[in-house]
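Weekly sync notes, structure subgroup
Attendees: PM, AL, DS (notes)

Item 1: joint prediction request from the bench team. They want all two components modeled as one assembly rather than separately. Inputs as received:
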Amino acid sequence: MMALAEIGRDLSSLVWGGLISGCLYAFGALGLVMVFKCSRVVNFSHGNAAGLAAFLVFGFSGGWFLSLSWGQAVLLAVSVSVMVAVVSYAVIAPLVFESDLTSTIVTLGIGLILQGAIQLLFGSDIVNLDLPIPHFSTRILGLRITGYDLAILVTTIVFIGGLFLIIDRTRLGIAFRAVSSNPLAAEVCGLSMRSVHLFAWVAAALLGVIAALLIVPTTFLSSTTVPFFMLNAFAAAVVGGFSSLPGAALGGIAVGILVNLFTFYVSPEFDNTFLLGVILLTLNLFPNGLLQRRVGSRV
Amino acid sequence: MSDLTSIAPRQSASPLHLVWSRDGLLPLFLLLLVLPPMIGGFWLYSLSLCFANSIGVLAVTLLLRFGGEVSIGHSVFVAAGAYTVAIMEKQFGLSLFAGLPIAMVIGVALGLLLAYPSRRLSGVYLAVTTMAMALALPEIILHAGSVAGGFEGLYVSGRLLPGVDKSLQHYYVALVVLVGVVLALDRLRQSRQGLALLMARSHPAAADAFGITRDWARLSVMGLSGGLAALSGSVLAFASSTVSPNSFTLWSSIFLLVGSVVSVYGLSLARALLGGLFLTLVPQVLAGAGNWIPVLYGASLLAVVLSGHYAPRLKALWRRP
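Output from the run, pasted for the record:
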C-alpha cells in the first residue's frame, strides 16, 4: 500500500513538472508551426534567435553592456529580436515562393550567423539569468508548487490564449488562416502574403523569446542551451502534426510529461535519444500528428 | 536544378567550365596524383582530410539533388562509418579493406531505418528527424562504454601496406576512394536507377505511373546517401588516425550542408573538392578566431544561395539595353 502511494506521489509530481516544462516546449513549437503553416519554411534559426534574445537580456541587465532594470532589458531585447525576425524574413522573402527547400537551408545560414554572434558577443562561458519572480513554494494535494511554476502557467495562459484569440477573432488572424490553408486563393482575394508572413515570423520570434527567458532559470545560459532546448519544441511540433497550432500546444505538454517520466524512470542521460524515438514513433503511428486524421494523396 | 533535362552532353567552350564539369575529372586527378612530392606534411594531411570531407559533402549533395531533401544529421552516418572502422580494427584486428564495406552497409541500413518513418511525409519531417539524430548521437557514443572509447575516442593505426610512408597511404587511399565515388555518382546519374530517382522527385505522378513509387525513391536515396556518408567517415578515421565524439556534433552536420551549398550542389570532382576544402581549411585558417567560423559559414551559405537567386536576374537586367 505504502509503495503504491509513493508511486502515485512520484507520478503526480512528475506529471506536474512535465506539464510546466511542456508549456515552454509549447511556446517553442507554436513559433515553429506558425512560420511553417503560412510560409512552408522550417525555421532552424528559431532556437538561435531566442538564445540571442536571452543573452541580450543578460547583457542589458547584468552590466555586460548596460545595467538596466529587468523590464527595460527585456523590452530592449524584444525589440532587437523583432528586428532580427524582420531581417531574417527579408532575406528569405525572395526565396519563399520559389523553393521551400532553399529557404529552409537559408534559415540554417541565419542560425549559424546568430550563433556566431552570441559567441562573439558573450563568449562561450556559462552565465546565470534569473527571473524577477517571488521565490515561494506551497503544497497543494501533496504537490510542491513553486512561484516559478505559477509564473509559467500564468504566462502560458495569457500569451497562448492571446495568440489563439488573435488568430480566431481578428482580421489579421483570419488572413493568417486564409494564407495557411490556401495561399493562392488568399492572394487572389487581395491578401498581402508578405504582411501575413511577417506577422507569423514576428509572433514566432516573440514566443521564442518568452520560452527562452522562462527556460533559463531552470538551467543555466550557455551559447547552446536554447538551440538544444528547441529540439524539444521540434519534437512537440512533430507530435502535434507540424501544421496545427492546438496540436503544437498539446504536443508540447505531451512531450514535457513524457520526457519527465523517461528521465525519472529510465535514464537521465538519453533525453535526446528519447526525443528521436518519440519523433520516429509518432511519424510511424500518427503521420499527421495526434490531432489529425490520416490524409492520403491520389495520383 | 534541372537534373532531368541536363543529362544530354553539353557542348561547352569555356575552359573554366571544363574544370567544373565531369570532363575535368581526369586532369584534376592526375594533378592530385603527382602533387604529394611537391607539398609538405601539413598539406598532405590537410588534403587527406579534405578528400574525406568531400565524400561527406557529396553524400549531402546526393540527398539534395536526387531526393530534394535537407539533412542536418549526416554526422551520424559519418560517425557510424568512422567508429565501424575503428572498432573493427580494435576488436577484430580487421584492416580498412574489411572495415570499409562493413561501414558502408551499416550506413545504408541506418539511412533506411531513419528515413522509413517519414517516407510518405513532406521532407520537413526528414530534416527534423536528422536534427534529432545529430543531437542524440553524442549521448549514444559517450554511453556506449569502452567499445567506443568514451570522451577520448579511439585510435586507428591507419596502415594498409607495411613499409610505405603512412601519410602517403592516407593521401592516396582517400584520393582513390573520392574519385571512385565521383565516378560512381556520374554513372548513377546516367543509369536507369538514377533517372528513376530523379523522375520520382520532379514528376512524382508520372513516376508512379511507371511503377516507381515515391516512397521507394526517397528510401533508396537516403540509403545511398547514408552509405556514402559512412564511407566518408571511414576514410576520415583512416586519414586522421583517430575518432572522437566531439567531431560528430550537430554543428559538423550543418557544416557538411554548408559545404554542399558552397560547392553549388555539384557532383563533379572539382565541386566536391571545393566543398571539402572549405570545410577543412576554414577552421585551420581561423584557428585563432573560432567564434568567427559559424558567422563565416552562415554568411557564405547565404551568399551562395542569394547569388544563385539574384545573379540571373541581374544578368538579365545588364543585358537589357
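Discussion: The radius of gyration of chain A is 20 Å.
Action: AL to compare against the crosslinking data before next sync.
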